[in-house]
Write a structure and sequence with these properties.
The chain contains 8 helices and 11 strands. The protein has about 350 residues and is an alpha+beta fold. The radius of gyration is 44 Å and the shape is flat.
């Protein structure tokens, strides 16, 4: 990655040098042609010429890019639609294996045709699922593939492959460990065949083959079909294709949306109540400390007032206490008798 960044920086520097050289050459030529004109006219003419040449180069570059993309598209189409089919037709599908046995998400065996498959001694314990692909149409989107559990179904492959389903998916995703993986059921193998059933062995093979990811038992699949029907399956589950609909069933336990929302609301309410209780306790402690400090300050101020009063005249002393709101008139007499 660092080498690539350095290469890009070198290309940018080299391009800047070439562009500066190009500007100087064009500017020098214009200065020679318009040597008798004023400098402002020469500068404006230079700017107009350079802008015109830049726009022309951009247009040429865009046209060349589009032509290259068209050529690449044509080459790709020729490769997939003509060259590959012709190659397999010439070799009599020697490099294509119609039957594939899957075990623990891996292709443990591939067999060229049914005749060879029937000569093998294969037990049910040797595989999890079998794929049978019809390559006769030579189209990656029409490589219709059966998903079978029993070896006996291979013999009925021609009949089973003729039953195409009208089901099409807008969204088909697998979720594992918080990550989403798109599942393509049409290419390079088309699994949209009536009675094809998708279970864990299929998804285990797909994740290993396409994404090189090991599938755990904690995964789910959600889809949206062309008729806007939706499904959210938590493992263990199965998805079966009918002629124009999908049958699915999940026995996996996943938390419904309303339970998750209730948990979130409970957590929020608990946090809010804790915050409120903390605020109330802080306010109460602050009020208590303020009251205590106010009482102490009042007592100190009252003591200062009492100490500053002339005790020679008790009557004046009582009046001072009343004026300073230390005592009321009712208790004035009691205090007076006490001081006397």
């Amino acid at each position: 990655m660092d080498i690539f960044v350095e290469f890009i920086n070198i290309v940018k520097i080299f391009g800047s040098i070439l562009y500066l050289l190009y500007e100087n050459i064009v500017g020098g030529f214009i200065h020679i042609v318009l040597c008798n004109q004023e400098m402002d006219i020469v500068v404006k003419c230079k700017r107009m010429v350079i802008e015109s040449i830049d726009n022309m180069i951009i247009d040429i570059g865009v046209n060349i890019t589009w032509k290259m993309l068209e050529v690449l598209g044509t080459i790709k189409k020729f490769y997939t639609k003509t060259l590959i089919p012709a190659f397999h037709n010439t070799t009599n599908d020697y490099f294509r294996h119609t039957i594939i046995l899957i075990k623990n998400g891996k292709e443990i065996m591939s067999v060229k045709n049914i005749e060879v498959f029937e000569t093998l001694n294969i037990d049910k314990k040797d595989y999890d699922v079998i794929f049978f692909t019809d390559y006769s149409l030579n189209d990656s989107k029409r490589n219709y593939t059966l998903i079978v559990d029993n070896i006996s179904d291979i013999k009925k492959s021609n009949i089973l492959l003729s039953n195409k389903t009208n089901v099409s998916f807008i969204i088909f995703q697998l979720l594992q460990d918080g990550k989403k993986y798109d599942i393509n059921l049409k290419e390079p193998k088309n699994f949209l065949i009536k009675n094809n059933t998708l279970r864990q062995p299929f998804f285990k093979w797909y994740m290993n083959k396409i994404y090189n990811v090991e599938l755990s038992d904690n995964f789910s699949v959600n889809y949206m079909a062309q008729d806007m029907s939706v499904g959210n399956m938590q493992y263990p589950f199965f998805i079966k294709f009918n002629e124009s609909s999908v049958t699915s069933f999940s026995s996996g336990k996943s938390k419904p949306i309303h339970e998750q929302s209730n948990e979130q609301s409970n957590e929020q309410s608990n946090e809010q109540s804790n915050e409120q209780s903390n605020e109330q306790s802080n306010e109460q402690s602050n009020e208590q400390s303020n009251e205590q400090s106010n009482e102490q300050s009042n007592e100190q101020s009252n003591e200062e007032i009492i100490n500053n009063i002339d005790y020679d005249d008790i009557n004046l002393y009582m009046e001072s206490l009343v004026k300073n709101n230390i005592i009321d008139i009712v208790n004035c007499e009691r205090l007076k008798s006490h001081l006397e």
